[in-house]
Structure formats: C-alpha cells, structure tokens
Amino acid sequence: MASAASSSSASAQSAPASLLGIGQVLAKLTPDFPDLTPSKLRFLEERGLVHPARTQSGYRKFSQNDLSRLRLILTMQRDCYLPLAVIKDYLADVDAGLNPPMPGAALPGGASILQTGRRLSRDDLTRESGASPMLVQDAFTAGVLAPADAYGEDSLVVLRALVELQRSGIEPRHLRGFRQATERELGLIESALMPVARRRDPSSRAKVAEMAMEIAGQLEVVRSSLIRSALSRIAP
Engineered SS bond to 199: which of 123, 144, 161, 204, CB 3.0-4.6 Å? Predict the structure, then answer.
C-alpha cells in the first residue's frame, strides 16, 4: 500500500496535467454513484483504501489508477454490501501481486459486481429476468421489490432469484417476512449510528454512510452463517 502512495506522489511531480482534482473525480463518478461526496473520498483515504498524490500546496490529485480503484471500491460497496475491511484486504492482496478471488463476485443469476451503471425499465427487467409480468407484480405487492421508474442490476439479480424460487414452489408472498426482518435490521443500524448521526457535520455524515454499509455487511455475515447452520440440520 505504501508503494501505491509513493507511486502516486511521484506521478504528481512528473505528470500533474494527467491527474484529477476532487471535483473532476466527482464529475466522473457521481453519474454512477450519486451519493459520492468530497467527505466520502476523504474518508476512504483516511481508511487507507486509496492513496491520492498531494501537490506542494496540499491538494489531493487522483490518477487514472486511483479513479479505477475508487470505482471498484464503490461498486463492491453498492452491489455486494461488502464491509470496507473486506474490500481493503482484497485490494492489499492485489497490490501485493496476488490474484485473489473477487469478494461477492459470484452473485445469483450470474451477475457480476463489475456490471455497473445499467438502468432497466420494467419491461427490460421482466424480459431479462425471464419472469412473468404476474411474478413481477407479486414481487411488488410482497415488498420484495419496490416499484420505480428504472431498475439497477440488484433488482435484476433479485428477480432472477424469484424466478428460480418459484420453480421450487416459493412465491413472493412467502417472503413477506424478509421485508419485516429488513426493517428490524434497519432499526438496529439506525440505533447504532445515532451518536454519530447527531453531530450533523459533513465528515460525520460521510462516516454514517460508511458505517451503515459496514454494519449491513456484518449482519449479512451473521445471517448467512445462521442459514448454513440450519441447512446442515436439514441435509447433514
């Protein structure tokens, strides 16, 4: 990681015109990540996930490699709900010249976290998932999917899973409890973040967003473990 930082510093001296300021980075990334802010970029730097160069005046400058790295980090957070600690470990292995498996890359339905920026209409969503219009409507009614003007890859992944579940006799109405469990988890996350959320300054708002993703990722780890444990009793 130190080599990445020193490389960025060297590039700031040798080719400053090729580097990007925070405003330029935001302009390139916010179309796909509208919640990205300068505070969040600084937070990712503080956590050691990205190492922008610094000018003599102290301004951050990002290379094209930094930009690609940020896009990957944000995609892994958004699409796989991965904690920053998991993402940081993955990037450390990459920086060390290893070829680690992508955390969360094998998603249901063959989707990849590298697929970003797609926006699907309801017709597109129905066609690409192989779902019937009735199944899509049942998913909305059960609260498994939320009606919207456009849908992302996560909605496509969920709907493909619902198609497969339907083949096993599991309908969206059987999954209403999932929505209720999600609301309970949201309550846990909000309670945990309350002390930080009360501060109201921009840095705290960025930390709230990152901590929420971290906690959600850890809850997913616990949930997955409980499911695997229960399955072992069904099919030892």
Answer: 204
* pLDDT higher than 70, residue 216: yes
Place of tokens 């989707």: 111
Task: Provide the angle, in degrees to the nearest 10, between the axes of the packed helices 64-80 and 84-95.
Answer: 140
User: From CA 173, how far away is CA 191, in angstroms rounded?
Assistant: 29
Residue 154, burial from CB neighbour count under 10 angstroms (0-12, 13-18, 19+): middle
For residue 206, give both structure tokens.
Answer: 């960025």
How far apart are the C-alpha atoms of 61 and 50, rounded to whole Å?
11
Whole-angstrom CA distances from 194 to 187, 199, 215 are 11, 9, 13
DSSP for residue 16 = G
Query: What confidence category does residue 112 fall into, taking pLDDT thresholds of 50, 70 and 90?
Result: very low
Please give the structure tokens belonging to residue 148: 């919207």
* pTM summary value: 0.48
Q: Specify the residue for token string 């405003």.
A: 23
H or E element, residue 60: strand 60-61
Q: How far is CA 230 from CA 157, 213, 225, 227, in A?
A: 24, 26, 9, 5
Domains and CATH numbers, the chain: 2-95 (1.10.1660.10), 118-170 (no CATH), 176-234 (no CATH)
**Does residue 100 sit in helix, strand or coil?**
coil
Whether residue 103 is predicted with pLDDT greater than 50 in this model: the reply is yes
